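user: can you give me the structure for this one chain? tokens are fine.
assistant: on it. calling the predictor now.
[tool input]
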Amino acid sequence: MVKEEYSHLSFGEEWLKANFDTAKEGLMAANRTNLPIVWKMLNVVADDARVLGMEKEALVEDFMIQYGEALNNIGFNTREVMKLSAMGLAA
């Protein structure tokens, strides 16, 4: 099941990479809308995650690493990745 989900993610990443020029603005808009929601979700599950031995900081770190790598893989440069990531922190 997890392997199947990774293949879906890979397909989406490859499509975005191939269509980066036309998808870039939409991705940036989605980032502005969705990243603050991700932070809210992480805050909601922080206590439950701690019970399971997962600290919120580690969850955030893992998410940011994976998110940044995905953004980079589809065509954003390092500066853009940092800017997009910071948008969620400022919200």
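assistant: here you go. The first helix runs from residue 2 to 18. The chain has one domain: 21-90.
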